[in-house]
Design brief:
The structure is a homodimer of 279-residue chains. Chain A has 279 residues and is an alpha+beta fold. The first copy, chain A, has a single domain, classed as Cyclophilin. The first copy, chain A, has a nine-stranded antiparallel β-sheet with strand order 14-4-5-12-11-13-3-2-15. At the A-B interface, α3 and β17 of A face α3 and β17 of B.
């Protein structure tokens, strides 16, 4: 009887438990950006920053960003784009309430990677994004890793509107819980990395000469991109066996390539979920 | 009398203790690399990896790398260059003994930034480089931060010779104490970030089609670069007050811009020493 039960479990459980390595993000949450250096695709995070995502999509839809540029680009830090002139008007360009974090839902799907983390109580993945969680204060948030998209602001928490930045260097983790992160680049980081930087002695990073700034040719909602121009991008699912194995192997460095085996800690910003084109 | 003593101390001590914010690296330790995307300057670390530096300089001097290319470039990871064909001969292209770390000298000048660090007993700076230290095992080593230069190898520790890589993404800290790091880019990271990457689905990152690889036009020892083409690059001195203040401010996030003040931990790879052109 026990053998029979085991046999039934073996036959039934793997297919029931298996999570596919690759997921296809919902087109509703994707925006395309065209640069001279290539096409960039960003996945938005309405679960974390619904107001930022709604406003950003409205601005994209009306073409607000088209022809604007990356006016503050500091190598190893961020590429900031938008309307540096503050001349462009839009009914959608409103001040946003900060969405730095959210209360952890009762049924959080957070996948732990590192606990405690160096900069947070816990880090891991949330709906495909590198995220932090503090169970004591019942908060979760998106991390500032390479490729993270967040809205720029002045000193006041509720002062963001349309200017945005993308992290292009070592994770700017001091911005976690200080900025509203609302997406991440899932395709085309090389096009971002090829953006024109400010000169090395330019501490503010603001590129004063407009002709030296890289232009945003256009932004489009994925659903407004012609079907034959849409990319079939897939992103790793953090609940899949392939991702678990990659993390486990990072913890132990068990390949013979590694002579020093580390201390088992993982930097989730290094182990971000990978993308592929499913052609 | 006490007042007089204080006055004397005030008058004498600041100039005696002051360390200039900027130092000019020794030309002996600099190499220039010319890419289609710009000029790159690397500071070498003979104090950590003397054999690697000696061999690399000999290879540079004889023009070994000129016309070779970056044949393995993975966005967010490393750009690896050298002779993928293994056809190029040189009397200097010899197998090197690993120089992953060195015994901490009795009079180490290590400047602590973070202790304990997430991935090491201690991290900080050593002669201008982000470094780790383990006082128990009396070892210190260079970290894999963005811009770090190290020699590639196969599984065996002593198998590096001439192919090298530069870290272009989130710090690859699992390579610390596993690879011989022997320098870092102090000028021209944007030129490196603009290198042609492997396609997104190319897991190995090796760019098979030579015409799609970015070329190394040439490498030169700084002393072989014509004087009027040399750049007057300076790097922050980790013992200076300016660097101390930047680190202190990173620990407390005391500007009113920051609403969440963090936990005081610092990622030394984010706080790498800055460069400038002294024109």
């Amino acid at each position: 009887m026990k053998t029979l039960l085991s046999l039934i479990l073996i036959l039934l459980c793997p297919p029931l438990l298996a999570v596919e390595e690759w997921r296809t993000p919902d087109n509703e949450n994707l925006v395309y950006m065209q640069l001279a250096t290539g096409t960039v695709v960003i996945e938005l995070a309405p679960f974390m920053a619904p107001s930022h995502v709604t406003q950003f999509k409205a601005l994209v839809k009306e073409g607000f960003y088209d022809g604007l540029d990356f006016y503050r680009v500091i190598d190893g830090f961020v590429a900031q784009g938008g309307d540096v002139s503050e001349q462009k008007t839009s009914q959608h360009n409103k001040l946003l309430k900060a969405e730095f974090s959210r209360p952890t839902p009762k049924t959080s799907t957070f996948t732990t990677v590192q606990k405690p983390d160096f900069m947070a109580a816990e880090t891991g993945f949330l709906h495909g994004f590198a995220a932090g969680r503090d169970e004591q204060n019942q908060q979760e948030w998106l991390l500032h890793c390479p490729g993270t998209l967040a809205m720029a602001r002045s000193n006041e928490a509720d002062s963001a509107s349309s200017d945005f930045y993308i992290v292009i260097g070592q994770a700017t983790r001091h911005l976690d819980r200080n900025m509203s992160s609302f997406g991440r680049v899932i395709y085309g980081m090389p096009a971002i990395q090829a953006l024109q930087r400010a000169e090395i002695n330019n501490v503010s990073g603001v590129i004063e000469e407009p002709s030296k700034r890289s232009k945003i040719q256009w932004f489009k909602l994925a659903n407004d991109v012609p079907a034959n121009k849409q990319l079939n991008i897939q992103v790793q699912n953090e609940k899949s066996e392939a991702v678990s194995q990659r993390l486990a192997s990072g913890r132990t460095l068990d390949s013979e390539f590694f002579h020093f085996k580390g201390n088992g800690n993982l930097d989730v910003c290094y182990y971000q979920l990978k993308s592929r084109l499913n052609n």
